[in-house]
Amino acid sequence: MKITEYKLKGIIYFEDFHFIYHLIASDYNVWFNDGRITGRTCHEKGHLSDFNNSDLLICDGKKAVLVIYIQKLLEHHTTA
């Protein structure tokens, strides 16, 4: 049997013709970028477990418009 797992990897926010985003690293640290302010540099905002749903749906007054997940198929072995 195969089990499918989805992992959150990014959230894009939009308002007033401007995008910003959160990247979620493999260690679940959340990184923020606003190209107008931070340029190419991302800033660490904390661990994903420190965020609640409201924190993830709104960022700096901008609403989440795209959520990016990766899919991972896991093999599940059963013993008979």
Q: What key attributes describe this structure?
A:
80 residues; 59% strand; elongated; 2 helices; 6-stranded antiparallel beta sheet; mainly beta
Reading the helices and strands in chain order gives EEEHEHEE
Structural class: mainly beta
> Which sheet architecture does the biggest sheet show?
6 strands, antiparallel
Separation, N- and C-terminal Cα atoms: 13 Å
- List the uncertain runs: none
Total count of helical runs of at least 4 residues: 2
Question: What does it look like?
Answer:
The chain is mainly beta and 80 residues long. The chain has a domain at 20-64. Helices cover 11% and strands 59% of the residues. The chain has a 6-stranded antiparallel β-sheet with strand order 4-3-2-1-6-5. The longest helix has 5 residues, at 53-57. The chain is elongated, with a radius of gyration of 16 Å. The two termini are 13 Å apart.
Task: Offer a concise description of the structure.
By secondary structure, this protein is mostly beta strands. The chain has helices spanning 35-38, 53-57; strands at residues 2-15, 18-24, 29-33, 43-47, 58-59, 62-75.
Task: Describe how the helices and strands are arranged.
Blueprint: E1 2-15, E2 18-24, E3 29-33, H1 35-38, E4 43-47, H2 53-57, E5 58-59, E6 62-75
